Amino acid sequence: MVDRVYTDFSVTAATYFLKFTGAYFTESDADEIRRKIGLLHTGLVILSGVYVNSVNVKHFWGHDLSYCSYSICNLLLMCLGMCKVAILRYRRFDLADLVAFAQRHFWHYNYSPEEWAIIEKYRTLSKYWVYYVVSVTIAIMFGYGSVPLMANRGGNKTERELVFKMWVDFPVYETPYYELMFCFQIFIVGTVAAAYVCPDTYMIIFNLHMICHFRLLQKQILDFWQRKKEDIDDDMTLARYTLNFKKCIVRHQLLITFCEKMERVFSLTIFMHFLVFSAYIGLDGYEILLPTTALERRMTIVFLVGGSFGHLGVLSYSCDYIIEESTNIITTIYRGSWATMPMNQMGRILRLDMRMVMMKGLRPCCLTAAGFFPVSLETFTKLASSAFSYFALMRESIAYDTSE
Description:
The protein is mainly α. 77% of the residues lie in helices and 0% in strands.
């Protein structure tokens, strides 16, 4: 038994995202002050971005469809990021309970070498997921910043562009105000990206840990059927089977409880994500097809759409894997040596316990979008199909307008 604090790079990085946006729970007065500062900065920065893009929608409505669509997409992302942070902040006590539950039952080093090999595999997957999130966030900031920089190349200083156009009675396009405003708008993009990914980053890491421990439970169920040297007779073997299976039942109940706690924390953020995603992808597809869209902005949007699809695809796949692994408990129990057990009272009780766990496995663990539907790969494919339907509809609309 090794009593040392569990450390995981992916969990630490996801916690930093939450602390940066002010959505994490606090453990001391100093943490509470930093949390308030982070939440205030996130709210003010995103609200300023919402205001700027709302004004752009008002000015370009009916005149420049490309920039109007671009501003509406930005508004959707900013509002979604702010809603995710607000929901997670509202659920902060449930989040604290979820983290404490994971630290108490799952995040420790008291595993066998065989179990630790499985855990290391999913720790590596969690690390790769964090790398992906950070890389996409940096790439998005670079993409948004490169559009005005490339547009300004070769022009004079009076016709410079910003990331978001500004309609103010202030010389924001003159040095040094232009440089300061450009940096602030890039900071807006980074803050929105952090607010957009912070709940999902934590949730997917939790999902991978849950999948890992369902795998460990299946291994534990298969291992205890093997006969030991100390099993003198069938009664002693059956008693050991019964004791070990009770430990498996306790572990299974912990995983079910963990999934229920995750559902309470993240279900509403999942719902908001799926609600906005179709409209957002449809508008981005519309902007990509518009002939008036600048090449630099079109490439940025293509990369942004790809990153969003990858983000939602990993989220859906991890949720689908939870459903699959929690259902595999039934098959794992059935593969055991239960048929060789004697048909005495203890043997019948053990078979009854096995049947109850298998019946419980018929209702797999899953995460839902606010209780409306379970999240799985099927959900992702349906959502992608609807997004492409909007995309095709807008393409037909553009073709019809061109023919007219």
